[in-house]
Amino acid sequence: MRIFPTAVLLIFLATPPVAFAIVAGEPDASDRLLPRHKALAAMGAFRHAFAARGKKGEDKLHAQHEALVEFAKATHPLVADRLLKIASGTNNEELRTGALAAIASMKKMPAYAGERLSEGLRKRGIKSDPTSVAVVIQAFVDLPYVPASSVWKGLFKHKDLSVQQAAIKAIGSLGDDRMLSALISMLAEIDLAQKGNRTGTGFAGGGGAATAGRRAAGRTRLRPDVVEAIKKLTGQEFERAADARAWLEANPEKMHKVAVKLSDLLSKQERLLKQSIAWAKDKR
Prior knowledge:
The chain is mainly α.
């Protein structure tokens, strides 16, 4: 069965989000990852399978997809690096999303896989393709992995509204309260847009009043998603940005608990990332 971008997304969307659940107990890398010699052997086997010699057209593409899926079972940083190289180097959207999905399936090393996917968002071929970006965003939720705030901010500036929507939903699912202020600012812009004010700066910043107005008008469709994300972060539903800001000022202690939980998650994530990087250098 051939796997196409839409199918890849449906596989991701069928997976329920899991917030704050990186790896219980933080097992050693040796308990989670392949030793280097086995990873290198898997890379050799993948090189042969991915070449799909003697096959053409859809048959070749199908064989390459199967090779990507099998290769991702070799959980090792070197494998994730190779998959990212494929994703960022191909002009074939199906192979690109397949390689990204393969990285996303490496849940035994969520921090490293997430970091590689974050890096992928800086690659032209990936960041310019809404389908590929959507795969990465959903992967953040499914691994789970909380990217740097700068990653979210970059996604808020994406020209495709569906990418912005996916990022907003992912922030709520992951409980990334660092972005609460940005979400409330979005809601404020939407409030203004719906009142007919077209002089806001927009998420991406800059531009003339007419351009900013068109951006704000388009983003009014994101109101339900912004409201829901804020609700997931605060436990409260606000229809107006002013109400959200007033609640935050009156209840700082409630958000402090969320911030502590997220801080613990990010610390664990950083430890796992360092562990995987060290394992990649292990010559055993």
